[in-house]
Amino acid sequence: MSERPARADIGVVGLAVMGRNLVLNMADHGYVVAVFNRTIGKVDEFLAGEAAGTSVIGAHSLAELVATLKRPRRILLMVKAGPAVDTLIDSLLPLLEPDDIILDGGNSLYTDTIARAIRLEKLGFGYVGAGISGGEEGARTGPSIMPAGTYAAWPHVGPLLQDIAAKVDGVPCCDWIGPDGAGHYVKTIHNGIEYGDMQVLAEAYDIMNRGLRLPHGQMANVFDSWNQGPLDSYLVEITANIMRAVDTDGEPLLERILDRAGQKGTGKWAVMSSMEIGQPTTLAAEAVYARVVSALLDERVATAAKLTGPESAIADPVDEVISDLHDAVYAAKIVAYAQGYMLLQAASEEHEWNIDLASISSMWRGGCIIRSRFLGELMDVFAADPDLRNVLLSDFFADAIHKAQPGWRRTVARAIAAGIPVPAYSSALAFYDGYRSVRVPANLIQAQRDYFGAHTYERTDRPRGEFFHTDWE
Questions:
Q1: Which of 42, 64, 187, 377 is an active site residue?
Q2: What's the Cα-to-Cα distance from 303 to each of 287, 292, 297, 306, 309, rounded to whole Å?
Q3: Domain ranges in the chain with CATH number 3.40.50.720
Q4: Each residue of 112-125: pLDDT tens digit?
Q5: Which pTM does this prediction carry?
């Protein structure tokens, strides 16, 4: 391809499914998009196929891509997170000029984004780490986009990102979040909550399937009914659709899918961050570990013949079990978000990001995987009280979890009695009971620490901040 005059509004590097669909989304909104891919054949294939007849133009080198871009140049990287991003940045920098802007739309680790933003800003470039959620469908029709980094870049990238983002009540599911790695951090916590949401629904399926022996059509109807109330969400909707899917012989396709769940790391990053910052993101952690246990497939098959437990059948009336299960799903979901937002608040304070939780809730209402009616309620709660320390303390969610609590507890008890693992429901309940307790048994742990390690302790009858040691022998 010969060099052409600068006329493209933005360049996109990386033509996997997400990259291609974002490019087509931009073209739909009137932008001229230049594209490049390391495998050059994908550029020509894309132009001859999906992008034929659009405003998309191809480049066979990074230099050619850069030459097609209006200034300040805007280049969106849609490549695998990690070293590939740094390699690509290093290749681009000699071709760029001060004030040009690089955007990373992948699932990068937020600490990597912080380092990249610092480095590029010192060199005079703009750097934006933009978390993008919605999968391939969202990328094509309107995702949730979470940008942060060099604030001076926002006027140049904001209108485009908000144009292609999902809209709820006319409001784009995209707004500026804060400095350096704030955007990718918010996406990480989004994914941690997503892990929890998915595990909560998987446990509901397990109870209905193994515990109640319900046919898949009936389970689909249950999820459909839940999707008409407070559990209205994208994940509940697609779960109903999955229940109805059949294989070529008419049998439920779900039962032919190997029970071994994969993960790409963002859920793990959320849990690791919670441990570093000191926030109890227990439900997301259990969701990650549930996937880890699922991956031990050969061990599970071998131990099933060795380790015993109760029969998985639940004998209680189906309607009662389903009603209680609805409440367990709702309560656990509330806890998942409460914990995620606790972590967001703590990280925002530690990194001085000044994250607006009402704005985050608004951005997640459409386009993203965890979009739901629930997020509108969270947006209202934080708009009314931006300094709220925990969503469980708001009148709306305190009342909701109070009403759901009896069914939640009965669900956990039934599952335990039937030998059906419910790590999401039970860990959420354990957190809830611990969080509402005036006194927990940590005094014994502190005494033990002092006994074997002289770690000292504080006393209830002395001012906070005074530490004591006992010679326990």
A1: 187
A2: 22, 16, 10, 5, 12
A3: 10-180
A4: 999 999 999 999 99
A5: 0.94
